[in-house]
Design brief:
The protein is α+β, with helices and mostly antiparallel strands. The protein is built from 4 helices and 8 strands.
Length: 139
């Protein structure tokens, strides 16, 4: 699998499970809508009252899983809250989720970008199964 094929797989997914750790180390997961940048970064929105927001404020390490059938992507990375200078990520998200514009008026709405550190793609329907790992510098 090439990096381009991985990007295509991720971009075809609209939902993913994002897992964070609470301040006492307890794992917590949530389904989120995702957009994916050319650099394999994942963008999602949340509100500041959510558990994932509180968790990310303390520990920005995340695990993400998305799939279709027996094809999966496991993704680990570092999340950061978007600021004013990060409009391109917000715009990318709003291209995929136009209804996200309505949520911009919600109290406490914010967006995060996750930069990949490690991704494993698996296709267990293939014979033999296809399992490819990607690692990224700096995360």
């Amino acid at each position: 699998m090439t990096r381009g094929e991985l990007l295509d797989f991720l971009r075809r997914r609209r939902l993913a499970v994002v897992s964070t750790a609470s301040s006492n180390g307890k794992p917590e997961s949530a389904v989120v809508g995702i957009a994916v940048s050319e650099d394999l970064e994942i963008v999602f929105d949340t509100v500041r009252t959510s558990r994932k927001y509180r968790n990310l404020a303390v520990n920005p390490s995340v695990a993400v899983a998305t799939w279709t059938g027996e094809k999966t992507a496991q993704y680990e990375g570092i999340a950061s809250e978007l600021g004013e200078a990060d409009a391109r990520y917000r715009d990318l998200y709003l291209e995929i989720f136009p209804d996200g514009r309505d949520r911009l008026s919600w109290p406490g709405i914010t967006h995060f970008v996750i930069r990949p550190a490690w991704i494993r793609y698996s296709d267990f329907a293939a014979r033999p199964p296809v399992i490819e790992e990607f690692t990224f510098e700096g995360n």
